[in-house]
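User: Sequence recovery, please. Input:
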């Protein structure tokens, strides 16, 4: 026959197990609520990413179309040449970690100044180097190089990249780009 102590201990054990089960049930309810909130937040964020991705794709398509138009109007580039420029921009983006939406306007500005795709490619490479070495934005450096190509070197002097106004006035554009290439 079981003793009275054993019955009492068994009762306590059952109460503790029951209490633990209640706590586990409460935890499960709280965890389920927390997971539901997290799932809703994740779904909202995924929706935002989807919308942002669509907007980004639309902007990217507009930028591609704008560059294609500039290439066609300024240099008479063919569809094949325009596609080649896009491939080059993608490669530059991957190699330099710079978004293509920064590279396209830079390249477009340089094409308008030089009216030559090959020359614009050379200047964009230099612009990338100068921007990386000086901490200036690619847009700012490209605009300064484009102006210098057109004969106005004042913007390059304002960049603070080691060329004085006097030096810039006395140097040819080729000398300026050589000096920048050596420096950066």
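Assistant: Recovered sequence (184 residues):
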């Amino acid at each position: 026959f079981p003793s009275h102590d054993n019955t009492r201990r068994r009762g306590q054990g059952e109460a503790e197990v029951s209490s633990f089960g209640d706590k586990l049930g409460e935890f499960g309810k709280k965890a389920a609520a927390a997971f539901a909130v997290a799932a809703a937040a994740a779904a909202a964020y995924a929706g935002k990413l989807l919308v942002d991705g669509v907007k980004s794709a639309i902007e990217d398509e507009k930028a591609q179309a704008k560059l294609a138009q500039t290439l066609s109007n300024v240099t008479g580039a063919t569809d094949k040449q325009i596609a080649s420029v896009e491939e080059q921009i993608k490669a530059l983006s991957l190699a330099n970690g710079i978004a293509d939406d920064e590279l396209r306007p830079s390249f477009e500005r340089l094409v308008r100044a030089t009216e030559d795709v090959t020359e614009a490619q050379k200047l964009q490479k230099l612009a990338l180097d100068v921007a990386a070495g000086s901490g200036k934005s690619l847009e700012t450096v490209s605009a300064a190089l484009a102006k210098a190509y057109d004969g106005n070197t004042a913007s390059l002097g304002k960049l603070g990249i080691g060329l004085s106004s006097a030096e810039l006035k006395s140097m040819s554009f080729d000398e300026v780009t050589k000096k920048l290439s050596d420096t950066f």
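The CA atoms of residues 71 and 77 lie 6 Å apart.
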